[in-house]
Design goal:
single chain; alpha/beta
């Protein structure tokens, strides 16, 4: 097709061959092969000149369009082979996004300037569905997931902190036993948030009775913290959220659990066998380094 397009442009075998870097016999053979494949005569050959047949005139413009499209495809493939270029669709859970995205975005800006990062904030079930169906490339969320076909690249562990009204009797303590959760008025996020499930698991481990009253009133951590400040109960906050959420209200007090404190693990998650697996693992390594400034315990790769 390249040979035919060159002949159609130059109407001269020698000039066409020189233009695309082929020998004249090879170019003539390539055009003849295309005619055989298409089943039509494209050129009228004489000893003095080359003319396009009626079919050749119709197909010449289409051939150039096809070649341009193939060239664009090859350029796109070349870009895809280059790491940290093109689009990366990152899904993030709501209890991580506000607190880690500044670090993530700064890392991408500084280290991967050619990467087009697109962020989608959704709950865990929606993120996993997006990953499975190719709508998302990579997830940033709490693990373990227990999802088939998903590989987790652990980043860090972080402790939970007890947030409470400023006059609460546990405020300011650094040795709160988990058992204290058995009797406290606990505020949690709505159904669907993995942080809710994690908090309930911690309460069960602490010996809180199944069915003990739990007030569920908030769709996000910011609202939850405001309810705590208003005296409606206490809640569990991840350490990475503490500065942002408690800094907005001076009616709050915090307390830390005795070791070993309840915690959660945050990781990147990708499709097992993903084509960009090496790139995602390098991204995880860069994030672990960047996240060391936060109050977390970085995980080994």
């Amino acid at each position: 097709m390249r040979a035919f397009a060159a002949v159609a442009e130059h109407l001269h075998f020698r000039d066409a061959a020189a233009a695309i870097g082929m020998s004249q016999p090879a170019l003539s053979g390539a055009v003849s092969a295309l005619e055989d494949v298409l089943g039509v005569q494209l050129l009228e050959r004489t000893t003095r000149k080359v003319l396009l047949s009626p079919a050749g005139e119709r197909l010449a413009a289409r051939a150039r369009t096809v070649l341009d499209a193939v060239g664009a495809l090859m350029e796109e493939a070349e870009a895809a082979r280059a790491p940290f270029t093109g689009v990366l669709r990152l899904g993030v859970i709501p209890t991580v996004a506000p607190y880690l995205l500044p670090t993530v975005l700064r890392t991408v800006h500084d280290r991967y300037p050619d990467l087009d990062l697109q962020v989608h904030e959704e709950q865990t079930a929606s993120l996993l569905d997006g990953l499975a169906h190719g709508r998302l490339d990579l997830l940033l969320l709490a693990v373990p997931l227990g999802a088939p076909g998903v590989t987790e690249l652990t980043l860090f562990d972080e402790d939970f902190v007890l947030a409470m009204p400023e006059d609460h009797w546990l405020g300011g303590r650094g040795d709160i036993p988990r058992e204290a959760l058995r009797e406290l008025d606990l505020l949690l996020l709505d159904e669907g948030h993995c942080l809710r499930d994690q908090a309930l698991d911690i309460c069960r481990e602490a010996g809180r009775e199944e069915g003990a009253p739990v007030t569920t009133s908030a769709a996000g951590l910011s609202t939850l913290v405001q309810l705590v400040a208003g005296g409606l109960g206490v809640t569990l906050l991840p350490r990475t959220a503490l500065r942002v959420e408690t800094g907005r209200n001076d009616q709050l007090s915090t307390g830390y659990f005795a070791d070993p404190a309840p915690s959660r693990r945050i990781a990147l998650a990708m499709r097992s066998g993903a084509a960009r697996a090496d790139e995602f693992e390098s991204f995880a390594t860069a994030l672990r380094q960047a996240l060391r400034a936060l109050p977390v315990r970085i995980c080994d790769p």
